[in-house]
Structure formats: structure tokens, C-alpha cells
Amino acid sequence: MQKNGDANKKESPPNVTPVRPVQRAQQEQSEKPLDPEQLILNSPQLADQIKSTVNDLKIRQEDRSWAADLVNDFRENLLKFLRSSTDQPIFQSADFLNTGSYFEKVKISSPNEFDMMLTLQVSTRLNLTPLDDGLFYRIDLTRPTRTPIQAFLMEDELTLSSSRILGEMYRLVRKFLKTYKVPNDCYHWEVNKKKPYSPAVTLSLCKPENGSDELISVDVVPALEVQSWPNAVRGGPNVENWLGKKARQEIRSLPCYFVPKRRKLARNLSEEAKSDAKESWRISFSHIEKRFMAAHGNKKTCCESKSTKCCRKQCLMLLKLLIERLKHCFPKELDALCSYHGKTAFFHTLSARYSDSQWAKKDLPICFIHLVDAFEDHAHRGVLPHFFVPQCNLFSPDAFPRKALTFLVDVLKEQKKEGLPLLKPPAPAPAPPLKPETVSAETFAELAAENSFSPSWFPSVDSSFITKIIPVLMLVFLAVLFHVALKGNQDRH
Ligand SMILES: [Zn+2]
Fold it and tell me: Which of 157, 317, 361, 469 could form an SS bridge with 309, CB 3.0 to 4.6 Å?
């Protein structure tokens, strides 16, 4: 670990002057925007910046693998516990979604945050009543039941309580942790305090001698599996040109999921609306989103060999990184912005620019600018339909204030004009991986296949977390130094 670690803590990335984007944009209105090809042609530095950011991200990808083994073990044992638990038979049907690539990166910046969805089967028929344009629902049984789900019904004996399922998930995870031993006994898992609008049970892996500092964070999200899709999403996502008719049919034959998430509401609403919001479920398609990422090509040959490599995943990573850093620099102005906006714009871009040749690896800079332009255009028009629930506009004034949208458009313009300064890593070079020696071959292959990146140097990482982790990193660095010195010695003999 370089000693510059703490230099990265609170500052914005270098070379970023938080300009007043509004004024700039007004000056620029007379200038005609360049198309991505011209822009890249005119600015080789911009192309270099994009390429070097992707390379840095790639180098960082092994950072989180030391964590993967511990998270794997936790996951497998929790599942065993739930399946054999007689307390709540509904949790005996539990399974983790998408075995094989269950690690969904929450943040590009934070290598040790993991997300896992725990699916639950309901054998009874359900009524799904939308509470908005199709994202949030009230879930009712069609008739009273004596099956295990009974324990999670409201007083009407029909409405499924999201808060009770989440509460029970918390209780079971706590119970599990009482007997579970982390393979490396220097660590232990702790359950975090419940957050009101979060559908997850959040856990931290801590090292006691470190003053209970968090090293890994895991979100376990319970999700009800429902076979028939509600009306609002019945058409299925618009992927025909991009992935083909057959893929669309296959997607439509998959179940959809509902996670126990409370809906945020305006104040002056009826008691009924308030109660529905409190017990609401949000529809989730993250299993299909993962599938999109895995089989992302217009042709099956995409990314099969070196000659057919595309840059789609890299473009999404870069956009997510840009969003994280924008939020870091302008937390108040861009409070409404989240990485899902970027992911949604990305999927729309993929279905519009569907040909594999439009995403050739060598064209990464141009492709990324195309994506940023598309994102900017959504913001400019105030229209970003949810990819699966097209009636739901993620950029509607209720969801995303106009002022924030204008601000977003302006900063995106500014970023392109200035050569994407926010993508520049803080100098000097990134730190070495945390614990490369703990990476099993299997985990490494899995991680490499996932092609996920994680710059540990990203400045928006929670600064208190960095302050806490620095002593650990220093120790690891010293251990690595010692190891290298020892090895050098042996080699000489
Ligand atoms: Zn590809």
C-alpha cells in the first residue's frame, strides 16, 4: 500500500474544478455539439483517458477476490441453515439467484460490497395490484390459506406483508450467525441496523482486534418468485433487434421477483395508501439484467474470441464510475441520481445500437461517448423509461427534480468538453491488491470471467471506511514486502 492512501480520502479527483456548469452550458449553446466519432478524432487525449481508465479498472479487478472466498462460505452455510430451518418453512424453499455469478457489483468504486438475492417460493396464487406505474405492488393471496405463507399475512388474512418477511429474514440471519463460524477465525459477521427503505439485510465482516471495522459488506435481499408477470411488464423488454425474438420469448418465460421495499410517499395521502406503501413490494428484474450482461451480443459469437471482443461491459463500467464520481463531487445537486439510471440508459442504448460491429473493442472511446450522449439525451428530454416497465419514467419530475436534470445535462457536457477529468485516477499509481495470496484458482477464474472491475483508489469510498482500513492495508503491504524480500533472498541462494 502506498502511503498516499490517505491523500485519496476526502478530496475530489484531481484536476476537477467544480465549475458552475449552468453558466458554461449557456455559453456553449451556440456551439454545435460534435458527434462521438468527431469528438474522439479531435481529442486523442480523451480517447487515451477512456482507455487508461478501463485499464486501471482491470488491474483492480482482483482486489475483491480475497473477499469472495469468505462471502462464498457465508452464502453456502446460510442457505444450508435456512433450508433445514423448521421455524419458518417458507424459507426452506430459499435459493440464491443465478448461481455461478451471484456477485453483483453494487459499486464500481468499492470492491468489497456484495449483493445477493435470496429467492422464496410461494405456492399460492397471488393478486398483484400496482401502486404506481408498475414498479411497486400490493401482493394479496387470491384466497385464505393454511400454507406457511400464512405467518406473513396482514389482518385481512390476504395481504402479504413485506415488512414481516424482511423482519423474519433479519431474525433468521441473526440466529444463523450465532452458530456460524467464519473459516478464518480472525473475522466475524455483524448484522447492520435496519434502514427504512432498504429491502436488504445488510451484514459487515469485521475484525474484532480492529475495533470492529467493516472489511466486507453483504446485502441479502429476500425476493418472492412469481411466475406470471403483471400487466405493466407483460410486453417484455424491447430486445428483439438486439437479442432476437427468441431471446425475448425466453425472457418472458422466466419468473419475475418482488423485493420487500417500502414505497416513499407524499404526505397528504389516505390511510389506505400509506398502509399499502408500508407493506409494498418492488418488482425486480435483476436476474434478467445479469443475463443481458452474460449474453450481450447480437450474434452468439460476440466476445467468444479475441477477434470478436466487444466493449459493451467496459462502457457500462465507465458510465457507472462516472455517475459515482459525479455524485461524489455534487452530492446535493445530484442526490436523485443513481447507478440504475446509467444501467437503464445503457440497456436502451444496447437495444438501439444493437449490432456487434458498433461495439468493437477498438472503438471503446467512441462507444463510450455514444453512451454518455444517450444518457445526456434522456436527461435533456426528461424521459428515461424503466427498461422493463416502460410506463414508468425514471426521470419524471416526481422521481428526479427538473433542476437536477438540468444540472446533470450541464455536467455531462462539461465532462466531455474537458476530456472527462472525473475519470482520471488520483495520482499516483493505484495500490496493490489487498490479499492476492488468498485467491483460489476457481474464484479467480470466476472473477475474471465476470470481467468486473474495482478501483480501490476511488476517492468517493466512504472516508471513515478508508481511515479504518488503512492500518490493515499497511500491515498487508508490510507482509507482502517481507515476503518479497524473503523470496529475493531465497532466489539469491
Ligand atoms: Zn461482446
Answer: 361
Co-location of 45 and 117 in the same domain: yes
> For the chain, how many structural domains are there in total?
2
CA dihedral (78, 84, 87, 93) positive or negative:
positive
My answer on whether 113 and 40 are in the same domain is yes
pLDDT tops 60 at residue 368:
yes
What is the per-residue pLDDT across 69-92, written as a single tens digit (0 to 9) for each?
888 899 999 999 999 988 888 899
Centre of ligand 1 from the C-alpha of residue 253, in Å: 24
**pLDDT value at 413 more than 70:** yes
Would you say residue 433 lies in a domain?
Answer: no
Identify which of 118, 119, 114, 117 has the alpha carbon closest to the alpha carbon of residue 103.
114
Give the CATH number, domain containing residue 370: 1.10.1410.40
User: Is the pLDDT higher at 478 or at 298?
Assistant: 298
Q: Which whole number is the average pLDDT over 412-419?
A: 92
pLDDT digits (tens, 9 = 90+) for 288-344: 998 898 889 999 999 998 889 999 999 998 999 999 999 999 999 999 999 999 999
Shared-domain flag, residues 91 and 194: yes
Question: What pLDDT is attached to residue 439?
Answer: 33
Residue 263 to residue 240: CA distance in whole angstroms: 32
Contact partners, residue 17, CB within 8 Å, separation at least 6: none
Any domain includes 131 = yes
Residues 273, 318, single domain; the answer is yes
Shared-domain flag, residues 349 and 384: yes
Give the distance (Å) from ligand 1 centre to CA of residue 317: 14
DSSP result, 194-241 = PPTT--SEEEEEEEGGGTSEEEEEEEEEEEEEESSPPGGGTT--S-HH
Domain around 467: 441-492
Ligand 1 centre to CA of 382 (Å) is 30
